[in-house]
UniProtKB/TrEMBL annotation:
InterPro entries: AAA+_ATPase, ABC_transporter-like_ATP-bd, ABC_transporter-like_CS, ABC_transporter_ATP-binding, P-loop_NTPase. The lineage of its organism: Bacteria, Pseudomonadati, Pseudomonadota, Gammaproteobacteria, Pseudomonadales. It comes from the Bacteria. One of its GO terms (molecular function) is ATP binding. It holds the Pfam family ABC_tran. It comes from Halopseudomonas oceani. Gene3D superfamilies: P-loop containing nucleotide triphosphate hydrolases. Keywords: ATP-binding, Nucleotide-binding, Transport. Residues 11-240 form the ABC transporter domain. This is Multidrug ABC transporter ATP-binding protein.
Amino acid sequence: MIVGGRVDSIIVVDNLTKTYETGFRALKGVSLSIRRGEIFALLGPNGAGKTTMISIICGLVNASSGQVLVDGYDNVREYRKARSRIGLVPQELTNNMFDSVWATVRLSRGLFGKPRNDALLEQILRELSLWDKREERIMALSGGMKRRVLIAKALAHEPEVLFLDEPTAGVDVELRRDMWNMVRRLQERGVTIILTTHYIEEAEEMADRIGVIRQGELILTEDKNTLMQQLGTRQLTLQLQQPLEAVPEALTGYPLALGEQGYALVYTFDAKAEQSGIAELLKRIDQLGIEVRDLHSSQSSLEDIFVGLVHSRAQTDQQAAGESA
């Protein structure tokens, strides 16, 4: 059991498990520390356990075992203190459709025992482009505006930690841009952001650190830049003057693939390797009389890494299952 979180960790999860009455194991001994003031992106396929973990941390679902500390407070034994530090933007729209925007946001602040602060609420609504809609009923708003109200509710009591569970799923480009601008401003104020997302390019742009969860297990947590350096690959694409029907037999020892209907050779190599092998490859291509008209390199994206990690773990699980059968 945890007896206290580290000073720089605002969320500490220790050996968290969750088994539902059906027997489904949603979480299998997850441990995680989230640093104060960081943007942490939790990635994983549907059903991996992302929403379950967030729901347990926020006190909405009971864990089967394990412990969660929020700013040093146990979220079961000291629920109110822990929960008051958290703002949650859920996937589903949960607003009272008959209330006005203003009444909804004021009520949310009051529920956490915060004193009235209309100036702060006005600032939040203006940042979310909701100020002009403050007197309208929720039911009259568009889907995108309803999601903005959820964010305003989550921010109304000035939380130290903000959970965004698939916040931009199904929203328009304008709202997505506004939301990420808001996230940057919140981080500048010291708010810790934890998000789950299907838009991996957003995690690549926004997150300081990445966690990957699969089938209820946290298979990796790493600083984003370190992750991309350690697990990233680079590709050198050679544009050819004349197309090839296949990779020449003399080049089969190189990690090459044919692309662009034979007009390109793609060479994949380890980004952190001391020797890339490019000079030797280019020399061999020249010896074979293959004319190269252009070349360019690229680095693997976070999405490439994520897909590779999940696929690799799935293969490992299948092999283990085969050996135990």
